[in-house]
Amino acid sequence: MNNQLSDILTIHHQALNVFPYWTDDLIDLWENSIVDLLNDIQKELPIKEFYLRLQKLSALLNDGHTLIFLPDKIKNDLTYAPMTLTVIENQLVINSSDKNFSDFIFKPIKSINHLSVSEFLKIVSSHYWQHNINESLIMAQNNFSFLFNTHSFEIEFENGDKQEIPFLPDKTNFSNFYSDTLSNNCQILEEHDAIRIYKVANKIIVHLTHFMSDEMTAIFYKYIPEYLTCEEIIFDLRNNGGGNSGYANEITQAFFNSTFETEKISTQIIVGEYIASGIILNTDNYDPNKETDPELIKMNKMLHHQYLTSRVEKNHYKQYEGLLKDIPVKILQNEQTYVSGK
User: How much is the pTM?
Assistant: First the structure.
């Protein structure tokens, strides 16, 4: 119980400090849920129930950034689905799998484990990101056995077909599925967790899954000779979860001869005329004209001496500049392509 109390208080403190832009109503809901969970912890919650409650708690914030990582005590018992799920045009489908279930790719699903599609998706979104079901499905991929307390999915498809898909003790490498779907004459140049490079006919496909590896830039530039002789480069950024946009900028430099613009940055500037320190901006519901506390009045006067400066950030990596400036490029992205990917 003590560990659970420590965990929930730590999460509560960190969340309020990391995300100060939540509305008062949302913070009230968060606080009430925290209190409810603290009360239940005193009744000795089983560890699985505790982490399910933590996941639902984080999902309340609905920001897509908060994610509860499961402890080893739970992860050691996990099994893994040999397929991935996504929603396309309001239909739940399998969009990749190992070879045993490839016949079911993109067939609309009617139910999973006797749950309707809407019931299944509601459970997933209520534990991850409420307003982005496909991102929630990605987040839940390795936790389906925990979330649904099962080691298999019994799937009924809209066309009446039924298939039980047993989970596996190890995670499936879906990069194999990606390359298998390209074509029979696909040549694998590189397969890395963050960057996968394939040659199909006279085109190069660079599949960037995220920007969180300091190796990806070197891997990309290793194949300059192949790029220079290809018809075009296709960057596949679908489902790219983002990360360090600096890695994206380093790759981008190959297509620019000089400095190029990346993103607009705004900075809040405060002149410490009354108080020589920063302060969080007032909420919309706060009326400084009705304030009676002398210290807060000073703070509000200080807030009138603030302004925003904006600039467009630029980057230049001379060692990479213009190496591929004449090569045509296509970019594939979807709603799961995060900001640094874009």
Answer: 0.71
What domains are there in the chain, each with its CATH number? 2-72 (no CATH), 83-166 (2.30.42), 175-259+316-332 (3.30.750.24), 262-314 (no CATH)
**46-50, 130-134, 161-165, 205-209: range with lowest mean pLDDT:** 130-134
Q: Could you read off the pLDDT of 92-140 as tens digits, one per residue?
A: 999 999 889 989 999 999 999 999 999 999 999 999 988 889 989 988 9
Q: Give the CA radius of gyration of the chain.
A: 25
Helix (H) or strand (E) holding 87, with range, is strand 83-88
Per residue in 20-56, pLDDT (tens digit) is 556 778 878 888 998 999 888 888 889 999 999 999 9
Q: How would you write 137-171 as a 3-class SS string?
A: HHHHHHHHHHHCCCCEEEEEECCCCEEEEECECCC
The secondary structure of 180-241, three-state, reads HCCCCCEEEEEECCCEEEEEECCEEEEEECCECCCCHHHHHHCCHHHHHCCCEEEEECCCCC
Residue 110: count of CB within 10 angstroms of its CB: 17
Around Cβ 123, how many Cβ atoms within 10 Å?
16
Instruction: Give SS3 for 108.
Output: coil
Contact in structure between 168 and 122 (CB atoms under 8 Å): no
Per-residue DSSP letters for 19-68?
A: -TT--HHHHHHHHHHHHHHHHHHTT---HHHHHHHHHHHHHHT-SS---P
- The DSSP symbol for 114 reads T
